[in-house]
Write a structure and sequence with these properties.
globular; 37% helix; Nucleotidyltransferase, domain 5; 18% strand; two-stranded antiparallel sheet
Length: 234
């Protein structure tokens, strides 16, 4: 599975009022493994950055004076995420900004380029209703060291979110069963005539059940309806 964990930093909180993206940070997951394939760009937003936003991420107008514009990197960015499943914390925020930038250039929404979007904020609230679901709170819950996160940063936050996502969905890696032909059974008996060993029943732990529910929630979100597993177990 090809997944891209994405985060942005912006001039302010509302793209509808003309706020722009000033940083994009992405990391890649292939088969649930973090790769070295990263995408990170600072961008000149062609407008000033709100003072409140500077307090959050520490990026100033002066730092972006010579940075490229979104239009300068749009093709490179779209090629990087094309066909991947995006993993974003509070996806509506980042998608709103990305689509506003794309719309300014006459481009189609980001959802037409990627294969799907997982919102880890919604996923966290599904797994643990009523508990805090900020990135810092999830790092604490899953034992991920974020002491170096004194300010928000798109690449740093994407790296932390990748670790959080893997921890939230741990236990769902593909199971490879050892089923060598010589040991398979036919008609209830082993080919070598040896007695069949007693069947061991292993029940899922509470942690595994929570992780399983998290994956079902992802599939529900991606498919727009109930999973086949839920239908069969109703």
């Amino acid at each position: 599975m090809h997944q891209i964990v994405l985060d942005t930093e912006t001039t302010g909180l509302d793209w509808k009022n003309g706020d722009r993206i000033i940083e994009i940070g992405c990391v890649e997951l292939l088969a649930r493994r973090l790769t070295d394939n990263r995408f990170h760009r600072y961008l000149n937003p062609e407008r000033s950055i709100d003072a409140g936003a500077v307090e959050v991420h520490g990026i100033t107008d002066e730092m972006l004076r010579d940075a490229p514009r979104f239009a300068d990197i749009v093709d490179e960015f779209l090629d990087y995420v094309r066909g991947a499943e995006l993993i974003i914390h509070n996806a509506a925020f980042d998608l709103g900004f990305l689509n506003a930038e794309l719309s300014r250039l006459g481009r189609d929404p980001i959802e037409t380029v990627v294969s799907g979007v997982i919102d880890t904020l919604k996923l966290a609230k599904t797994i643990a209703p009523g508990k805090k679901a900020s990135l810092d709170a999830l790092c604490e819950r899953y034992g991920i060291d974020n002491r170096h996160r004194t300010l928000h940063g798109a690449l740093l936050d994407a790296e932390l979110l990748a670790e959080v996502y893997l921890a939230m969905t741990r236990g769902q890696e593909t199971l490879m069963l050892d089923a060598a032909p010589a040991a398979r059974t036919q008609g209830g008996a082993r080919r070598d005539g040896a007695p069949r060993p007693a069947l061991r029943v292993l029940r899922a732990s509470e942690e595994e059940l929570v992780a399983h529910e998290a994956v079902l929630a992802e599939i529900d979100q991606a498919s727009g309806g109930k999973t086949l597993w839920r239908t069969l177990t109703e």
